[in-house]
Amino acid sequence: MGRFATASLEQKLIAFRRQLHENPEQSHEEFETTAAIRGWLIEAGIRIVSEYPLETGVIAEVGGLQDGPIIAVRADIDALPIQEETGLSFASRVSGKMHACGHDFHTAAILGAALLLKKREQELKGTVRFLFQPAEEKAKGAIQVIRSGVLAGVSAIFGLHNKPDLPVGTIGIKAGPIMASADGFIVEIEGRGSHAAIPEAGIDPIVVSAHVITALQSVVSRNVGSLDSAVVSVTRLNSGNSWNVIPDKAEFEGTLRTFDERVRAVVRDRFEQIVVGVSSAFGAKAKVHWNDGPPPVINDSEWAARATLVASSVGLDPIEPAPSAAGEDFAFYLQETPGLFVFFGTSGPAEWHHPAFDVDEKALPLAADFFAALSVDALNQLNARP
Ligand SMILES: [Zn+2]
Ligand SMILES: [Zn+2]
């Protein structure tokens, strides 16, 4: 198939990305980002579909000149509450906000694919629907977009995340799980306060928390099989405010990650049993509050195989990446329709959500090429299905 993106398209995509990078907006506040994307689409003559009720984010379509299936390609558009420390000439102009997850890269790359496909619209055997999705970082945007009805009639969906530790020119394609479920928990331990010198009169929630948190370390080591994996991390613990008072309450929070819904259910179950059981052994009461995050991102194996061929055809080097224990709300789309989420090599100097995060912009036209070629191929494949 070969490369499609021209030097002038590359310059355009770099300019898009830098404009977004300079003007980061957090989840559900992506109003200027939305306006910018709309402007670029309109300029390219790409139709914006306004029937889906979204306050931020844009849905657009290319194709449909020939009857055929609909596929969707998704880019997330939001930024993070991080103070940028890259020193780039186009660094964030907004204090305390930064595109530190590279969603500016995703947006520009998928815009690039839309622009390339617009030029080949006559050939498209169906429709490519572009989802510029808000609020990925809050894991809320995908659900909103799905509720707007945008997946109706969609046969396959594709998306990407940049990957700083993969070199430019490589693409990480993996059948099955590629990113983790990401649940949050807050645990409240209720004991009984007392004088620090008279502990027998109270139930010390600090001692109880210490035992509970220690016991939680056995959830993964003793309940998850050796070929499965999970992470349980306690990231905050609060209790008390004085040296001579045993407090009546303690609270801790953290996160739970898995790559399999079955493992996720087992781990959540064991977690609750340990928290409640250990607390009650000490005479304390415990409550677990879950903040349900996205499920694991599970890729379709047939689309993974097709994408590997397409990647090679546009000169990319497909590799099988290690899954990431980070969460990604693209998982919700894959619960509705089969598809594929890939990692795109961007040779970054720092990991996601780091103040020094950056991407190598040479990857931009490569990503645009790949998603244009994958869209053409996916429509052809779907048309060939009985
Ligand atoms: Zn992120
Ligand atoms: Zn991200």
UniProtKB/TrEMBL annotation:
PANTHER family, alphabetized: METALLOPEPTIDASE, PUTATIVE (AFU_ORTHOLOGUE AFUA_6G09600)-RELATED, PEPTIDASE M20 FAMILY MEMBER
Entry keywords, A to Z: Hydrolase, Manganese, Metal-binding
Organism per entry: Cohnella terricola
Cofactor, how bound (note): The Mn(2+) ion enhances activity.
Pfam families membership: M20_dimer, Peptidase_M20
Keyword Magnesium in annotation: no
Domain of life where this protein originates: Bacteria
MF terms (GO), sorted A to Z: metal ion binding; N-acetyldiaminopimelate deacetylase activity
Positions of Mn(2+) binding: C101, H103, E137, H161, H353
Gene3D superfamilies named among the record's database cross-references: 3.30.70.360, Zn peptidases
Name the record gives this protein: Amidohydrolase
Every Peptidase M20 dimerisation domain range: 184-275
Cofactor(s) needed: Mn(2+)
GO terms under biological process: diaminopimelate biosynthetic process
